[in-house]
Amino acid sequence: MFEKVLVANRGEIAVRIIRACRELGIRTVAVYSEADRESLHVKLADESVCIGPPSPAQSYLNVQNIIAAAKTKKADAIHPGYGFLAENPYFAEMCATCGITFIGPSSRCIEVMGDKASAKAEMEKAGIPVVPGSDGIIEDEDQALSVAGEIGYPVIIKAAAGGGGRGMRIAQNPEELRKSVALARQEAKAAFGNPQIYIEKYIEEPRHVEIQILGDAYGNVVHLYERDCSIQRRHQKILEEAPSPALSPELREKMGKDAVKAAKLIGYSSAGTIEFLLDKNGNYYFIEMNTRIQVEHGVTEMVTGIDLVKQQILIAAGEKLEIKQEDVKLNGHAIECRINAEDPMRNFVPTPGKIEFFHVPGGPGIRVDTAVYPGYVVPPFYDSMIAKVMAWAPSREEAILRMKRALEELRIEGISTNISFHIKIMDNAFFRRGEVYTNFIQRRLFP
Predict the structure, then answer these.
(1) Which of 152, 202, 242, 340 is spaced 20 to 30 Å from 218 by Cα?
(2) For residue 121, is pLDDT > 90?
(3) Structure confidence by residue, pLDDT tens digits, 289-298
(4) By three-state DSSP, how is residue 392 classified?
């Protein structure tokens, strides 16, 4: 087992990793930017190192500074969390070169699955359904028009190295496609340093359903069932639940088996997520793989009782996965609401600032993952998520009622948040019936 793990992240995921390490008897090193000097993860870790100015490019994305911090503090492993360098194959390779274990999959897996076009090709080899689209990268406007003519409109343009909705454009006709290709290239170049794009058939009113998997270095892979992440704003998830209210037991088993097949195909070893789009007829299509722990991992932990972060660490330490597929049971229903420092009344503009008062809800079935506290100043340089409220109950109906109660109990003063927005979702009749899809917010909350 590792003696010391450096946590190459910030916020609630850094706190989550530090807690898991402490329970495993592992010492931790926090890294922080100058803006995060008073952050909770810095206070909780055994040791800490400043790695640069507030800008992510100069701190949390600074590979050389993070590796240097790990070597200086004699850390034998690095956990990247999610975001930042979590899916950067160069960083994973640098860790290996420097004799530091990267708590995640191999750089080869990250590279293959990080490029959405190559990931899609791998899944087609395995016989896993994929969304109809271009065979690889779109080189020019004429090729885009040709592909769209074959698969039919509407189509969606995506950045090959993308994520988080950036570089995505929907085109309903050839005229829109011509405009969108150039814009998508520009967005992809600006966000990821890679202008490559590809095209897929746009599935209307789909659900976003992802399967959580765990794999070890010995070829063992299990799935931990699914999460429904359909409620999104600008392609960013804001609420997740497990299990999905849309899946029958038969479809759940089929999707789970395909996710395991996909992970085995690439020799995947770590926690990861196979993401699918599910159409209204029950057809599902692979869209991407996330080769890291997910923001929403907590809802899976609540319905399976399996600690995903600990499993990640154990697998990286070379231990064999002791969980068999028959051991994984679904118990009840869990919902997660992402609490962001943003103002829903002003088009969700970020609202950094000082938290004057902070009261966390409690009671049966409630979990809150956060890194904020009274007096903490939310910096303007990073993602606006400041907490995740999770509610578990024996049924989905009870989980919704419990989540609403928790949201009403949650108090954050000093900055604006999206708590009221989540309460509005809990009260929505379509959500309560489980009738959700990726454009739910536009259709049902802001028609």
Answers:
(1) 242
(2) no
(3) 999 999 999 9
(4) strand
Say if CB 213 and CB 260 are below 8 A apart.
yes
Let me know if 12 is exposed, middle or buried by CB neighbors in 10 A (0-12, 13-18, 19+): buried
206-240: per-residue pLDDT in tens? 999 999 999 999 999 999 999 999 999 988 999 99
* 360 pLDDT more than 80: yes
Quick check: pTM over 0.85? yes
Q: What domains are there in the chain, each with its CATH number?
A: 4-103 (3.40.50.20), 132-201 (3.30.1490.20), 207-445 (3.30.470.20)
Indicate if the alpha-carbon torsion angle 85, 169, 119, 221 is positive or negative.
positive
Q: Which residues have C-beta within 8 Å of that of residue 257, sequence separation ≥ 6? A: 223
Q: Can you tell me the mean pLDDT for 136-155?
A: 93
Q: For residue 103, give both structure tokens.
A: 């708590």
Dist CA 415 CA 123 (whole Å): 44
Nearest alpha-carbon partner for 174 in 200, 144, 151, 202: 144
Q: Residue 286 is encoded by which pair of tokens?
A: 């692979």
8 Å CB contact between 197 and 160:
yes
- DSSP-derived 3-state class of residue 273: strand
Cβ(79)–Cβ(8) below 8 Å? yes
Active site positions, annotated = 292
**Phi, psi at 39, each rounded to 5°:** -70, 155
Any bridge partners for residue 28, and if so which?
Answer: 5
Q: State how far the Cα of 394 lies from the Cα of 382, in Å rounded to an integer.
A: 36
Sort residue 11 into left (φ over 0), alpha (ψ -120 to 50) or beta: left
